[in-house]
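Bump. Still looking for Homoserine/homoserine lactone efflux protein structure tokens.
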Amino acid sequence: MSMDIWLTFLCASILLSLIPGAGAISTMSNTIRHGFKSTLINNLGLQTGNLINIIIVGAGLGALLAKSETAFSVIKWIGVIYLIYLGYQKYREAGEISLNQGNNVSTSYMKLFSKAIIVNITNPKSIMFLVALLPQFLTASGSHWYQLAVLGTTMIVVDLLIMIGYSLLATRLMRIVKDARHMKLQNQIFGSLFIGAGALLGLSSH
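Sorry for the wait, here they are.
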């Protein structure tokens, strides 16, 4: 894997992790309710869920690549189209998110950990992100599992650090996520970035 490919994937991973989603909401919510220490446990659960998704998706893509490069290319293009679609949806998204995940979260570390795993492995967007993103950076010429290990480790470390950042800034972020105008602008910025990323990946597929 070349440095250029890895740096591009690193930028994509940072972009994906920065967008407030189920993981970010879970992190901020638990920080506000239980404090920073408990959120570290929640974060480890989120990354365990990410790891499970990466292995499942990566194994499926590896089998597909071994069977048919044509089918793999079709999946890559579907991923490009999906990323552009997500960008369009994000651009038009409402300008507010709720941190009320409900729910009397227990302070038990094991419960926090297991609930965080479930947040990611039951989140269809998380899996679809991986299906859309990973094929763009996997090549038939290199070791599939080596590439997957590099990309997966990069994604998990990036998400871990950004979730810690969300936790540390939870109090300030509370003001932002409740401000519809600021959130609308953020959605438009990230939506535009997604559309641009999808278009660039599509061009690079040539």
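The chain has a mean pLDDT of 76.

Edit: fixed formatting.
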